[in-house]
Write a structure and sequence with these properties.
Layout lengths: L2 E5 L3 H12 L4 E6 L29 H16 L5 E11 H5 L25 E2 L9 E12 L1 H14 L3 E4 L20 E4 L16 E11 L6 E5 L8 E7 L6 E6 L1 E2 L8 H14 L14 E12 L4 E7 L2 E7 L9 H24 L1
Parallel strand pairs: 1-2, 1-7, 2-6, 3-9, 7-15
Antiparallel strand pairs: 3-5, 4-5, 8-11, 8-12, 8-13, 10-11, 14-15
Amino acid sequence: MPTIVVLGAGVSGLTTALLLAKQKGNVVTVVAKHMPGDYDAEYTSPWAGANVLPMALEHDSRWERRTWPELRRLAAEVPEAGLHVQTARVLRREKDVAKGFKAALADGLFQLSPWYREVMDNFRELPASELPKGMHSGCEFTSVCINTAIYLPWLVGQCAKHGVHFKRAVLKHISEATTLSHTGRRADIIVNASGLLACRLGGVMDTKVYPARGQIVLVRNEAKSVMPTTSGCDDGDDEIVYVMQRALGGGTILGGTYTKGNWDANPDPNIAMRIMRRAVETHPELTGGKGVEALDIIRHGVGLRPVREGGVRIEKEVIGGTWVVHNYGHAGWGYQGSYGCAERVLELVDEIVGKTKREAKL
C-alpha cells in the first residue's frame, strides 16, 4: 500500500486526497499550513465565489470538462455539500471584442463560439433584445454556485470518512513531507498541491507562479438566480464584474479584481466602492434600486489566485529520492477543474506505483 502525503488543503489538495483515498490501497495524509476555517489571503480557496465559468481554451479543456459532471451531480444529489444550480450569463462588451479581449480575464470564457457550448447544460446565445447597452453579444447556461464555507469542510469530512488524516505544518522544503505521514512511515509519494506557495517552497521554487489578487465584497442582499459576468469594465483592465449568490444562506459575492503580481492582502476601500457600485448597476434588485448605501456588508475579502505562466502544472518528478506529483497553478479555476486535475494525479500515481512494482521484481 503506497503511503501518500498530500501537501495543501485547498480545493485541489482536498479533492485529490479524496480521490486517492477512495482508491483502495492508498494511505493518505493531508499536510497544510492552512485548513478549512482559516482565512488568509495566501489560502485562496475560502475566498473564491465560487462558480463554474469555463476558462480554458479548447486544447486545455480536459480538466473542466471532467469536473463539470461531478459538480452538477453534487448540486442535484448532495445538498449538504453546499452547491446549488444557478444560471450563468456571460456578456461580451463591444469595446472588448473590438480590442481582442485585452482585459484581465482574456481567456476561453468570452470566445464568440466557445467550446463549452457543447458541454454546459441549456447553453444559448442571447438575442440582441436581451443584451444590455454596450454589449456585443452574450450567452447563458446552467451552472452552479459553491458556498466554499460549506464545501471545503464537506470535503474534509468526506476525506476523513475514507481514512484520510490531517496535519498542520509549515514546510520550508518539499522533502520534509516525506516524514509527515500519520503512519510514521516514510512517504512513497508526495502530491504537491501547495498553490501559490509553490513559488517559495524549497525543492520546487517555481518562478512561473505568481498571484493574481482578487478583492470581493460579501453581502447579505439577495440576487436573482442569474450569475452575470462581463468581459471587462471601464474602471480598469484588472477589474471585472461578477455577482453570485451562495447556497444555504452563504450571502452574495460581489466582485472583483484580477491584479497580476499583487501580493497585497488588505482590502482597498476605493476598489470596494467600485465593486459595489458596479454590482448594483448590473443587479439593481440587490438593493431595490436604492444604491450602494443599501448593501448589507458581511465582510470584505482578498484572495491571491495561484497563477502559473504556461498554465497548470500536473506532472511527476523525483525530488530528493521521492516521487512528487505536482498539481498547482490553477489561477481562478481551481474549483471547476478540481476533479479533472485530481483524476490526472491518480493516473500519475498509478504510473509510479506500477513502475515501482516492476522494478521491485527485477
